[in-house]
Design a protein that fits this description.
The protein is an alpha/beta fold. It folds into 2 domains: 144 residues, P-loop containing nucleotide triphosphate hydrolases (Rossmann fold, 3-Layer(aba) Sandwich); 71 residues. It is built from 7 helices and 10 strands. Helix 3 packs across helix 4 and helix 6 packs across helix 7. The longest helix is centred in the C-terminal third of the chain and has 16 residues. The radius of gyration is 18 Å and the shape is globular. The model has no long low-confidence stretch (mean pLDDT 91).
Length: 240
């Protein structure tokens, strides 16, 4: 097996005097879709922020593509999409992408390529403020794809979207993984688990399980990931 694209060793994060991640260790394999699942407040976003290098940590080590998280050399190799669309409402889709391409130093021809990748062909002259929530999410994803990142970190990218839009975005994610991109996608919607190659189930800053969806179900003696999560929580509490 090749070295993980992301390696986390004894990561500790303290926020507001509370230990959010109490020494977490895990590896995430390259070229796969890894789903990071758990209830709101379990530490998913904090973990993702540490991976992209924007989270202050109290201890431990985070390595991405063999380099310390947040290293300048990773800026063009790691894409990050936050829950809230990070684009300008008063600019068109095309103007947003041209602006971010210039900031990132991406080739100008990448604009048309990412528009096609996220399914927004024909929307270049539309103001972002006139787009639906799903379309705005696609524009944010497009900005993250401008540099053709090797690692793509997505924080609840499908939250609030209808089932059709969710399906379309997941199709895009699988196409990216097929091209070799490593994707880490957080969600609190357990039924999205079956769309992933690997799962990380989190609760209160701890890893309950890290395996393929099938192996998680087997490990927890469950028929759904939601049932598996509840079974694993119960096992952890009894052990504690």
């Amino acid at each position: 097996m090749t070295s993980p694209a992301i390696e986390i060793d004894s990561l500790r994060v303290v926020r507001g005097g509370k230990e959010v991640l109490p020494g977490l260790s895990i590896g995430i394999q390259a070229g796969r879709i890894t789903g990071l699942l758990g209830p709101s407040g379990c530490g998913k976003t904090t973990l993702m922020r540490a991976i992209v290098g924007v989270q202050i940590v109290a201890g431990g080590r985070v390595t991405v593509l063999g380099l310390p998280a947040g290293t300048r050399a990773l800026r063009s190799r790691v894409g990050y999409v936050t829950q809230a669309p990070a684009v300008y409402d008063d600019l068109t889709v095309g103007a947003n992408l041209r602006y971010f391409a210039k900031i990132l130093g991406a080739a100008s021809e990448r604009v048309a390529a990412v528009v096609e990748t996220v399914g927004l062909t024909g929307y270049g002259d539309k103001l972002v403020s006139q787009l639906s929530g799903g379309q705005r999410a696609r524009v944010s994803l497009a900005t993250a794809l401008l540099n053709e990142p090797e690692v793509l970190v997505l924080d609840e990218p499908t939250v609030g979207l209808d089932p059709v839009l969710r399906q379309e975005l997941w199709t895009t994610f699988h196409e990216l993984a097929d091209r070799g991109t490593t994707l880490l996608i957080s969600s609190h919607v357990m039924d999205e688990a079956e769309r992933c190659d690997e799962l990380i189930l989190m609760r209160e800053g701890l890893i309950l399980a890290h395996a393929s969806p099938a192996d998680v179900l087997l490990q927890a003696n469950a028929s759904t990931v939601e049932e598996a999560f509840l079974n694993l929580v119960g096992t952890k509490e009894r052990a504690g």
